[in-house]
Structures are given as C-alpha cells and as structure tokens.
C-alpha cells in the first residue's frame, strides 16, 4: 500500500486518541448499487480490526500503525462491500428485524450483563459509544446477514451417504485413536555444581538405580520403592505417569519401551534428569471410531467445506451483478488486493 492509501485513513489515528467527533462532511469512498460506504465507515471497521488483531498497538507509533493499516485494509474493504451486498439481498427478500425481536434481544443482553434497569443499560451503551439506534442497526445487520447465508447457502447444501463414506475411508486416521499407556518411573537424580557433574556422584547414582531395579525384579512393589526412593515429583503418586501417547516421549524412551510388554521394566537409563527405571503399567491399543458413530461429525466437516466454497460463489455472483462506483482509486486498489487474497485463501480452507 502507498503512503496515499494510509492518508485516506489518517483520521483513524485521531479516532484512537480523541473522543467521538462531531458531525462532519462525509467522504464517500464507494457506491454499491446506490448505497454508500464512507470514510468513517471504513475507519470504524479498521479500528475494530486493529483492536482485535493487536490490542497493544499504540496510536503514537506511526510506522507500526501504517504497516498494520496496509495489512488489514484490503480485507476490511472487501468485507465492507460484501456485507453491503448481502444486506441488499436480504432487503430484496424482505428481511427486517421486528420490534418484538429487537426487544427480546435487548432483554437478553440486559440479563446476560446483569443490567437491572434502563439507566444502567443506557450507561453501558454510552460507554461503548453507541446509541439505541446504533445497537438496533448493528443487530439487524447481523440478523439479515445470517438469514441470507442460511437461505442462499446453507439451505442448499446436501451431503450424500456416498460422500460421508468416501470421507471416512480417506480420513481413517482422523477417527483412529493413538495407543495410550501408563508408566511408573523411579528417578535417581545426579547432583551438579558450577563445575558440572561430579563423576563419583554420578557413579553412586547409577549404582543406586541399578540396586533399585534389582529390588523391583525381585518383586518389591514399584509404588512403594518410588515413594521411598524416587527423586521425581511422581513419587507422590507411586511413580505413576500417564495416560500418555508414545509420541510425547523422548526418542530414548520410545526406543526403550517399544518392545516391552505390560509389567516389564526398562534397563537403567541415563537421561537429562539422572538415572531412571521405567515400568510399562498399562497399554491400550489404537481404536477406530465406527463409521455410524462418525457420520454426524463427518457431515459437519463436509458441510463446512462446501459452505466455504458455495459462499464464495454466492459472493462472486453478487459482486458480478453489482454496480460498484469507486470514488477513491487507492481504496479500489486495496479492494482488488483483498479479492486476490480471498481467492488464494479458498483452496487452503478446503
């Protein structure tokens, strides 16, 4: 984005620093089928996006602000135009928020935020810089957008049994649980100093660990020896660790455990923590979730993938039918960049 692009939104800096401004002569950036998007409309969206993306962004950091604006403005202007097109389609379908619907939503807002009377509610609106008219407009826009998406996109999505089965067969690993195990460990730590590890102390620790292993092989309870002799925090639980999957373990542990049967012990192992003996306490094999139990989950996944594709087609149709009259060349360029970014993002979402 050029310097001029950022200048179009220079008032955004003021918006961060100052109180709400008095009415000013609006600058129209684009007309979409006769409806307008103004400079203030764009700034409000930019502010909301910046606050969500980076709440720590400082209004006095001009370089960072310009960079952030350049990054977000393409997507912001695309969203603004698309939302306006969807709202226009909703009005064509006769969608509007009734007084009863609005009152019901406001009542829920009051209850959820524990606003016990109208004065508290009005104070909360003022704190957000909104009027009751602003709230109604925002809620109605959201409702209309959702209804249009449901009517024009979601209601037309169908997922066949054949698609469900094909997805299940090609994503079998998704419905397969990893083998889980529980272990018991005893750790004999090796004292260290600024000079490193003392060889004599390391040999003592190793000998102690070997002796513990011999006692385990002789039949002494692992949990008791762990509680009495281990230097690991797991001693409080009899040395019990898990359930865990093999892939979270260090390579040396994976190698030592891979051929063990339940109840077997590893040799004494030197690790970064000291000398350890590990017992394989339990092992659960991998399980595959049956197709019939997975159908609802699969249907949701396929529907979401289709929804993205169908919604993109729906927006492309609305854009193609629209009369879009740009009043600012730099914002038009940002819009074109945003469209390109959105098109590139669609394949990765599928």
Explain the overall architecture:
This protein is of the alpha+beta class. The protein folds into two domains: 3-92 and 153-157 and 302-349, no CATH class; 177-284, Chitinase A, domain 3 (Roll). The protein is 57% helix and 13% strand. The protein has helices spanning 3-8, 11-17, 39-53, 62-92, 99-112, 118-127, 132-152, 161-170, 199-217, 222-229, 251-257, 291-321, 329-349; strands at residues 28-32, 35-38, 180-189, 192-193, 196-197, 240-245, 269-271, 274-284, 324-326. A four-stranded antiparallel beta sheet has the order 6-3-8-7. A hairpin with a 2-residue loop joins β1 and β2. The model is unreliable at 1-24 (pLDDT under 50).
Which terms summarize this structure?
single chain, 350 residues, alpha+beta, Chitinase A, domain 3, 4-stranded antiparallel sheet, 13 helices, 9 strands, elongated
């Amino acid at each position: 984005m050029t310097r001029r692009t950022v200048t179009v939104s220079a008032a955004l800096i003021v918006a961060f620093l100052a109180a709400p401004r008095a009415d000013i002569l609006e600058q129209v950036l684009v007309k979409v089928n006769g409806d307008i998007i103004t400079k203030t409309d764009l700034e409000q969206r930019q502010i909301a996006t910046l606050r969500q993306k980076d709440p720590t962004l400082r209004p006095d950091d001009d370089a960072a602000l310009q960079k952030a604006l350049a990054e977000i403005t393409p997507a912001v202007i695309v969203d603004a135009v698309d939302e306006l097109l969807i709202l226009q389609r909703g009005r064509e379908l006769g969608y509007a928020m009734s007084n009863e619907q609005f009152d019901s939503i406001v009542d829920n807002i009051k209850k959820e935020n524990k606003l016990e009377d109208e004065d508290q509610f009005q104070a909360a609106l003022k704190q957000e810089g909104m009027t009751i008219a602003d709230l109604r407009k925002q809620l109605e826009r959201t409702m209309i957008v959702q209804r249009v998406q449901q009517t024009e996109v979601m209601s037309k999505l169908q997922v066949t049994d054949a698609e469900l089965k094909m997805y299940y067969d090609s994503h079998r690993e998704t419905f397969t649980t990893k083998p889980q195990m529980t272990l018991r460990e005893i750790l004999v730590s090796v004292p260290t100093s600024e000079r490193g590890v003392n060889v004599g102390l390391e040999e003592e620790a190793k000998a102690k660990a070997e002796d513990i292993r011999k006692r385990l092989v002789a039949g002494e309870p692992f949990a008791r020896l762990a509680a009495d002799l281990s230097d690991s925090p797991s001693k409080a639980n009899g040395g019990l660790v898990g359930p865990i999957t093999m892939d979270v373990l260090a390579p040396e542990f994976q190698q030592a455990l891979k051929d063990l049967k339940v109840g077997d012990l590893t040799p004494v192992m030197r690790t970064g923590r000291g000398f350890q003996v590990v017992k394989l306490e339990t092992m659960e094999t991998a399980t595959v979730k049956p197709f019939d139990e997975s159908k609802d989950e699969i249907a949701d996944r396929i529907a979401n993938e289709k929804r993205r594709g169908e919604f993109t087609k729906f927006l492309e149709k609305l854009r193609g039918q629209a009369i879009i009259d740009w009043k600012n060349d730099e914002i038009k360029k940002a819009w074109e960049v945003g469209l390109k970014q959105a098109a590139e993002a669609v394949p990765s979402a599928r």
